[in-house]
Amino acid sequence: MGEKRVLLPASEVDMTAVKYTPQRIQGPHLTGFWLKLFVMLAEAPIIGSIIMILLKNKNRKTEMLKNTVIPEDPMFKPEFPPQESEPAVVCLEEDGKPEERVELALQCLPDYNPGCIQIADSSAPFRYWKIRDYAYAYRSKLTTPSQVAEHFISAIEEFNNKNPLAPLLISYDPGEVRSQAAASTQRFKEGSELSILDGIFMAVKDDIDCCPHPSKGGTTWFHEVHEVKKDAVCVSRLRSCGAVLVGKTNMHELGLGTTGNNANFGTTRNPHAPDRYTGGSSSGSAAIVASGLCSAALGTDGGGSIRIPSSLCGVVGLKTTYGRTDMKGLLYRGGTVAIVGSITATVEDAILVYAAILGSSPAERVSLKPALPCLPNLTSCESWYAVGSLRLGKYTEWFNDVFSTEISDKCEDILNQLSEKHGCETIEVVIPELPEMRTAHIVSVGSEALSELNPDFEDGKSARSTYDTRLNLALFRTYTASDYVAAQCLRRRLMYYHMEIFKKVDIIVTPTTGMTAPIISPTALKVGETNLSVSGNLMRFVLAGNLLGFPAISVPVGYDKQGLPIGMQLIGRPWCEASILRLAAAIEETCAGPKKKPVQFYDILKGNQL
């Protein structure tokens, strides 16, 4: 039995006495035969329980959940106090048509310069084509969505013939892509395009319903128990804007991993370094955008699953406030930590896609009372003044807790540039109980996932899952009802700490991940891999966005000495997506420096592999 620990109420904690504890997750790194053996033991009735108890004790889970008196009441889903309005914004109507919101978003962007699209100079700095570049090319008859579709299909065929398999899409129909592209081409011919997103190629993560594709969640069996009858709400909103939905992207099975490893279909490779992971679980979504094959992709984020792969692949990943987007039509519908969001090549594209998919469900409008969604008006002088007025919170010891100082140094350089170029003030903050946040998150996300999946697992589907998924499930099954309640009490404490910080700052800044893209072990490709140390490094900074529901964005800020992308995370106040988008746009435009062309990159606008 452990010694009883009694916590002071959060409001009485002395912040000056808080000491940062470096976060290291203790656990085995296993692949191949040893992973199989460990899973077999972990699933055994008696020895499995002993293994999990030892693993939890090593990581202080028992101490935090069972031996601690937590004075706060439980908070079973994020609860947000009212927030001050944001300056220099354009407000959107949730009940309006998606295409009308996208048109308003378009008016918030700086003037468009089409000059670069007609330049054929191979020595020009690399840049991703933006949504507005495609729209200009279509309207100027430089190309058509149907021509782009043929370039896309050729590139996907090349990807699908790689050995070993490294698919971006695990459900894909060239005929369906051609059909959507032809309809868009006809609309442009008639001058009746639906929005700026008409003819824009987008992909959908495999845990989001998108007709006519099955939703497998990266498994070999989920489509057998889940029939896709119609699009998820977020997908239907994109479809109404004319987007060409190319198929379902690869992912870490059931979203229960951070690397993107998938032994069922093959592991998607990082376009910047094909011997390395993309990050997960929205692995295919990040890679298909980073490869130039799609302007945007939908992902889900229950533990950094949009932001981690976006950071590792050098693209933009937006996680919205919990409840900002309707989750109907997703694999995990009823949880309290996950959202659906976008992965895009640029911040302005993130703004356009966000405008299309936003809109709370009717139930959450009642329970969460979301503030009116807003976008930063980047066309006004007031917007640049608004950037300079942003107060940025930095917890230095946490900020510097990275695998390589190249990451923290690059992010520190961005903060210095924001100060010099825009006048942003960086304020030192302290965030207590970060290890407790990790514990509360894993108990919450694990219990909620198990609750949704249990009926199918009881029917024998668990045995058809990958070994690392089965290991996670074995851990989740050891959490009790009292553990879950304790985690929700910790959630309320942590919400208090963060809301006190947000009285002093507008945005909390961190690196997105504690390491750049990890190497894929060859033995991990067939059987899978478990590496809790890597998971800890990848998830170190992302959990407040999920457990507490805050909006957050990962924006590329440079590369390490190996040429691997580094991302910076901006965590905003509840419902304040406009503020993080504004700062992300400023970082992208004035601070981040030139982009590096990925090793695997396709120019589907002009039709060649670069």
TrEMBL record:
Positions of the Amidase domain: 169-581
Positions of transmembrane segments: 33-55
GO molecular function: N-(long-chain-acyl)ethanolamine deacylase activity
This protein's UniProt keywords: Membrane, Transmembrane, Transmembrane helix
Keyword Zinc: no
A Pfam family matched in the record: Amidase
KW 4Fe-4S (keyword) present: no
Gene Ontology cellular-component terms listed: membrane
UniProt record, GO biological process: N-acylethanolamine metabolic process
Superkingdom of origin organism: Eukaryota
Family according to the record: Belongs to the amidase family.
Name under which the protein is recorded: Fatty acid amide hydrolase-like isoform X1
